[in-house]
Amino acid sequence: MNSLLIKNGTVVTASDIQDADVYIEGEKVHTVGTDLQDKATRVIDAKGCFLFPGGIDAHTHMELPFMGTHASDDFFTGTLAGLHGGTTTIIDFAIQTQGDSLQSALNTWHEKAKGKAVGDYAFHVAVTDFNENTKKEIKSLVENQGVTSFKTFMAYKGALMLDDRQIIELMREVKKYGGMVTTHAENGDLVDVLVTENRNKGNLSPEFHPLSRPPIVEAEATGRIIDIAFEGSHPLYIVHMTCEEALNRVREATKRNQKVFVETCVQYLLLDDSVYAEADFGGAKYVMSPPLRKKKDQAALWKGITQNLIEVVATDHCPFCWDQKKMGLKDFSKIPNGAPGIENRMELMFSEGVLKNRLDIHKFVEVTSTKPAKIFGLFPKKGTIAVGADADIVIFDPDKKHTMSAKTHHMNCDYSAYEGWQVTGKCRTTILRGTVAIDEGKAFIGKGFGKYLPRKKPGEFNV
Ligand code: URP
Ligand code: ZN
Ligand code: ZN
Fold it and tell me: How far apart are the C-alpha atoms of 93 and 107, rounded to whole Å?
């Protein structure tokens, strides 16, 4: 059996830190301890480096068909880029086409991923058409196919959006089987009206994207979905939260002892809406929904992490190349929504988060790996470095300085949202299930190395 000994590193988990060696046999961590004897097939010296659990990005869209085009990363390029950036597992969204079944969406996404993904992957199913037929499919997805979370869109009217009644009925059905509903919280009708008003006034440049989706659009939907969940005591996870107003709705809910799981994404912590004014249509690079906000929102989100209101930092990785973005050159509402980020998340969170004292190193591990694993039923196989867990480990050099750029990244996108950013800390080696996948920027795994991860129901939701 293959074995690997990582010597002299500092092992960091969500709760502990220790100078230790890690001995891996096959795909699993066998021993964590000091002065482990060198009986492995391969030994790696990790002196001066941290060993982090492999990152888990709970929100990605590989090859998503969207707004007349497709996200530019497929499961090969996207998960490979993830591995370069220390993310070993993704949870992608199998999105139902209205009129089709949930099963057909899941089958389609399995087809996209199988034989291509190099990182491990699981699926949420996004329900865009809830009816008597869809309802019957929930049980099998949760109980037999490892899909325990169901996404709802409160926006993208006419394409992905569910109305409140559908969401309420979906929540009731999902709860019967121990699953959880997750929500993109924006008021779709309000967005529609604001977009139409701006277009009618001739306001067609990217700056009008955030102005058509102001914070109240998100805060209203956030408050509404929280109330709906409260009524039926349903677990709820809100994806990609961006602003103080929405976070305050969560804070309010805690006063009636309601637990709401909240995710934000690295771009909402680090980029602000001034970028929409970039010359030559440059703002299009950052057109995503909800949009980037103000610096005061970034501050609120960072604090929300330390206050345990926000438990997951994902990416909503949904890249489109420049030519695709240009579909909206004459009309901001036609710019495909989304941006690249899977490769940058861990290094940015370390450099901008840990090194700038916005969060400690354990919180870093928690929000990038452990909590997504717990909330979405992958823990303790994923999300930690412990005996018996999958040996998904990032050997991270905390001192290495580098510059982010589309010229050097591995995402299939011809721009970077962080072009020219100087960061400190780099993923030196990424190990997935005991195999060195990436070392010093070189890949050692082939297409199809990634495995599908059927997920458990979270045993209890107060994780
Ligand atoms: O702009 C975004 N976020 N694109 C991807 C789809 C979604 O809303 O998550
Ligand atoms: Zn969304
Ligand atoms: Zn998304």
Answer: 12
